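Appendix B: complex inputs.
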Amino acid sequence: MSTPTTAEVGQRSKEPAVVEIDGFRGRLISADHADYDIARAVWNGAIDRRPHLIARCIGTADVVAAVRFARDHNLEIAIRGGGHNVAGTAICDDGVVVDLSAMRAVRVDPADRRAWVQGGALWGDVDHETQAHGLATTGGIVSHTGVAGLTLGGGVGWLMRKHGLTVDNLLAVDVVTADGELLRASEDAHPDLFWALRGGGGDFGVVTSFEFRLHSVGPTVLAGPILWDATDAAEVLRFYRDFVRDAPDELGTVVRFGAAPPLSVIPEELHWRPVVMIGTCYAGPIEDGEQVLRPLRASRTSLVDLVGPTPYVGFQSALDSTVVHGWNYYWKSTHLPELRDDLIDVIADHAFSCSSPRSYAAMFHLKGAVSRVAEGGTAFGNRRASHAITLDAVWRPCEDFDEWDTAWTALRRFREGVYVNFLGGDEDPDRVREAYGDSVYDRLVGVKTTYDPDNVFHHNQNIRPGTGTRISGASRARPR
Ligand SMILES: Cc1cc2nc3c(=O)[nH]c(=O)nc-3n(C[C@H](O)[C@H](O)[C@H](O)COP(=O)(O)OP(=O)(O)OC[C@H]3O[C@@H](n4cnc5c(N)ncnc54)[C@H](O)[C@@H]3O)c2cc1C
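Resulting structure:
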């Protein structure tokens, strides 16, 4: 097989769908299949792409077969884990989707505190299995988010300040490379590849299995949101800034700006009222959490305080119904420094500027264990940032596009990097470099050049291979 260039892949991918793949045991779904429209839908309803073929794998051998098939036919490849990325990169036009959504098994070894998770699992699958033993690892704050995409980009969540990012808890992966070879990558095996997979995204291969370190968490934790009126935003944020500066690592917080969602736990009279909602989760003894959270809860009269002992596994899915599959989403995101007064004023002035009541902004507090790993220790960039904010425009299929333009412009002067998993589909390519910083990005280019020199995996926030700067001493498993 002559190796296709990226351009050739795009050009030649107009071939008709082929509905058989040698050695493939999963389901092959092409345009004439009754399930095609369901199978090509991703979380973001604004994404409407039509692949030639969706190869729904049921095991690693299927992934190998699908990758080799796509390469042999010079077809574009998209990789689908949970199908949750806002940019919709899990699906492509033309080409083959290597779809892992049927590979959701999770195995836990409670004694050794490890979990093995297949590449199509969702965070709800992991939390369900690990919490049966009072264990957890850092995952996303919405349980229908995919493990694979989230982990490969870094992984931020309630537990990160205590236990590190998801990638900081990753011990090993099984990965199918662009050559269709299965490798195990860890600190000891292909360490350069393992480094890149811990933040570099889906650029280096299809991960079929993740091995995670687990920690004792809950199963009941002190958690929940406190809501204040939107007009109090600046004052609440000033208090919050000082409060989180000295907060222990056990405390994870996310600030949400927008209309109060109609969740059953929120009193009905507050539904759709513009509020600042500080979500909290204390990953330690409940009594300690009560003490730590006391100043925040007493800081200013709130509309409602819903903090209390709650099952961690339930808390992890508390926001699921606020970000429904099939609605339309458009995100802008950036890391932010510590909340200076001028930044707080900008946030308070603009955080409620979207017209749709479903739109919101969410700001994660980073620091803690995230910032104690050396910059460049894994491929996750900007570890010293204080906060990551996403401005999430949400509109239903029957509604007009919502927008965050003025808020985004106002935040420009405070921008300090970005989390790659919060990037949208129409970003300037420079933003991928911004997600890593120059030295991490340049090292990623070296690994990409070694493991995927033809940029087979480019349907992502792409790190383009260079023209010869391969990692010395590393080689792909079997050059073709
Ligand atoms: C509502 C919502 C909440 C979120 N909350 C959080 C959060 O709390 N914390 C956080 O860190 N992020 C969060 N995210 C961002 C999330 O990390 C990304 O959307 C991530 O890409 C989702 O993973 P997925 O497997 O569902 O991705 P998919 O959409 O399936 O895939 C996205 C990309 O990931 C890569 N990929 C996916 N699976 C594989 C695989 N098996 N092997 C190799 N590459 C693969 C591919 O490049 C693919 O294009 C959230 C996103 C949404 C929409």
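Residues 274 and 348 are 12 Å apart (CA to CA).
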